[in-house]
Amino acid sequence: MNYKIIFLLLLTTWCRAGAPDRDDGYRLWLKYDLIKDASQRATYARSAQFIALSGNTPVLKTAAEELQAGLQGLLGKAVPIVTSAGNKTGGIILTTRADLPTRNDEGYQITGKQNITVSGRTDAGVLYGAFALLRQLQTGQPISGLSLISNPKIQLRMLNHWDNTDGSIERGYAGSSLWNWYELPERIDPRYRDYARANASIGINGTVVNNVNASSRFLTAEYLEKVAALANVFRPYGIKIYLSVYFPAPKTIGGLKTADPLDPEVNKWWADKATEIYKLIPDFGGFLVKANSEGQPGPQDYNRTHADGANMLAKALAPHKGIVIWRAFVYKADGKADRFKAAYEEFQPLDGQFDKNVIVQVKNGPIDFQPREPFSPIFGVMPKTPLGMEFQLTQEYLGFATHLVYEAPIFKECLDSDTYVTGKNSTVAKVIDGSLHAYPLTAIAGVANTGSDRNWTGHPLAQANWYAFGRLAWDHSLSSEALANEWVKMTLTTEPASVKTITDMLLKSRDIYVNYNTPMGLSRPWTGAHFAPEPWQNRSSRPDWTAIYYHRADSLGLGFDRTAKGSNALAQYRPEVQQQWNNPETCPLPYLLWFHHVPWTKKLSTGRTLWDELCTRFYTGADSVGWLQKQWAQVKKDVNPETFDNVAGRLATQQKEAIWWRDAWVLYLQEFSRQPIPAPFKKPERSLDEVKQLVEIYKMR
Ligand code: GCV
């Protein structure tokens, strides 16, 4: 071999040793790669010489095995599981203790002296503690001398999958469904277990496996067996399974003539169905229901109320300790009404009428998962009904899987909003965690962004949204920044400069997106793909499925007047909240067009007119995607090549599409404003007709 070849071989080996490992993103934040710093490894290893586990229940075994696998990877050495620590020190003891000073059953305590003790009142508490301990190592924190207690603030922390029997996912952008219904119950895809591991590691304890636009097929004996097989995989990870149900199932699969919730035969059908389910799945969680919403049937078809429908199902589940999660996402096809007000109008009068095992699940905003929405007014007006939160992780309105949008700031913005329901500091978070109204049940759900893509979420950085949701569901006081930082370290790199750069990208990404997509309180829940810009769309089967219904652009100005002069939706909020938003002079700019129809030439607090401010935001938003690209280029050396290229490609697409969004809005709105594009911004290179053509071509895909 000549010297040149030997040199090249050496160089390749050296480069590979220094470069991050190849990684396809499958391992999520549970990578457990060897900690690079040998002395750090040795310090950890001294406190992790064995894992002592006295119990033998499935969840405890999971805790020990997860800890063992994690330590093996991080420390590069086998850590034995023993049944008792005896006199030994330097190990980790996993134990349940009924008298633990945690606030609730799923909380954990980690203390460290000669041994590190991870304890919970229940097995699940120990499992969450084991993952928390691993997180300490993954993020470079100390593990000895620890003294920490952590409790979930919300009881039911769930994912909602909008997955169908044919493997498709409504609003899913990461491949097809994770659940192979045709293969179940016989074949158990190993991925089901990895799904459960990921969820348990962030504290998620429930999952609804099928779409809220539900098929009655899920309640047939054939499908219940499949669902039971999934439940068996999830159980050792402390995760309960729930089903979305089709309200008229007693008719469609039960052979009854009605689905009237007050009909005794219908009641019996559901009670029998519940018994059948619990025989197969003894720890079944309950039902999620979308009724009288977007064409889905419900109790109102029989002149009954949402409470009648929910309570009927609640009675069927109560003997088995199951719960009903009834969605408040409702609005009628009334062009004259304001969709913003619909859920409040239907649900507020029912406060206090729901059975004890019912939770009403409310989307964070009054419309539909828009890039920026004010909090739903319902959170401030139903003290006698447990209200659960519904966030969306899948990026229906957030650029699917090609745009980078870190969602923790969206979640936090809503959770930290003050409803003033019992005076100042009555945040949405305190409503849903039950601390304000002593709700007996508390819940939070995220519409999942997972799919069959190898990296689970399509966009590699969208994993951060799943992660942050779970962690916030556990503790809503955590900051977006802390969670981003944690996720980056566990998933992408621990190199400080790159951690900082990526964290910064994540934190700014939502505002960048809002700027080029829907600045200052514009919204765009019109019908169709929910992706292509189409502010001109004015025809649809219902008026509230057009674009013009929402932005209300005309020759005078832009925005939806929701003050007393307009739809008066603001009246649904407490006076203190109304005060913040009622006056266009003082309404914060991010919410301005949600509540006001503002003249094009109106001077805003920024010193610019509405038109100039809009243009500034559209243009700087689109330009900022270039900034994201530059930031990403800087972390190349510290991120594995596959993930790096994947994100770089998506950012390039995002850049192209951001300009597309900017051009569509600016050119369309200019027809009303009749104002020039302000300097230093340049007129779009294409015409409005050309953008419209582009959108038509997109829609043909
Ligand atoms: C599951 C929006 C989405 C629908 C979704 C609905 C809902 O309208 O576009 O796909 O249906 O919300 O949350 O029920």
TrEMBL record:
It holds the Pfam family Glyco_hydro_67N. This is Xylan alpha-1,2-glucuronidase. Keywords: Carbohydrate metabolism, Glycosidase, Hydrolase, Polysaccharide degradation, Xylan degradation. Homodimer. InterPro entries: A-glucoronidase_C_sf, GH, Glyco_hydro_67_aGlcAse, Glyco_hydro_67_aGlcAse_N, Glyco_hydro_67_C, Glyco_hydro_67_cat, Hex-like_dom2. Residues 137-456 form the Glycosyl hydrolase family 67 catalytic domain. Its EC number is 3.2.1.131. GO terms for molecular function: hydrolase activity. It is an enzyme of class 3 (hydrolase). It catalyses: Hydrolysis of (1->2)-alpha-D-(4-O-methyl)glucuronosyl links in the main chain of hardwood xylans. It comes from Larkinella insperata. Residues 28-133 form the Alpha glucuronidase N-terminal domain.
